[in-house]
Design brief:
Length: 268
Amino acid sequence: SHLLLQMNLCGRNLRRVTPEAGTCKEKPPLLSRVNGWSLPLNTLQVVAWTTFLAMTFTSFGIFIPLLPRVWRYVAYSVSFVLVTSGLFLFHFVVHLVAISTDPAEPNVRIKNYNKPVPVFDRSKHAHVIQNQYCHLCEVTVSAKAKHCSACNKCVADFDHHCKWLNNCVGSRNYWCFFSSVASAVAGLFCLVVVLLYILIQYIMDQEELRTDPHFEKITDENTWLLFLPFFPVRTKAPVLLIIGAAMLVLDLVSLLMLGHLLLFHLYL
């Protein structure tokens, strides 16, 4: 959900923890992060949510109401129910779960997260995890566990640390992460189709986009109505085109990035 990725930001590049330098012993010990809501929030996490809300607001508040009556019925009965009440809601839920889940190892989760994590001392240990024992978490971990430097804890079946979720992805939340990406791709594809149709109709036959009864009171062809049918707001054609073009570019960029990420995880 939402929504909103670059492979180098959501890739598999944090599988190891870089040992702290000797001078880092003087720094205050760090606390482990619980999940994606643990402060500080990541900038990309805020960008993802802002993008998700903007797409939802403009698509279902501005552009779908401009579709011809038959298309509008299809959009609301199919897209609205299946995409918004289906894909939208599904994406929203699994995205929240992926963020909110603590992906840490079982032995880590039963510990007190308010207890400072010791600083790694390379003079005592060659690696953070040796013989399935983490010298930072001070617990026994599974064979596929990795200690994430960003979350400062061992993650079960570590996949990667995703800055867009502000959380690690492991065995406990991988399905929700993958489902979030897949549902976002499907939803974005539907929105791109709607926006392209509106753009083509605007060029070919604008009357097809002015079938709502509220347009009967509008005599100026350069005047358009937003937020139909309940809260009609008048605006000029350039404003509508700018919003539409911006959303189309944003949708296409997001679709390409998320599609790339989806194919990457399908391939793996």
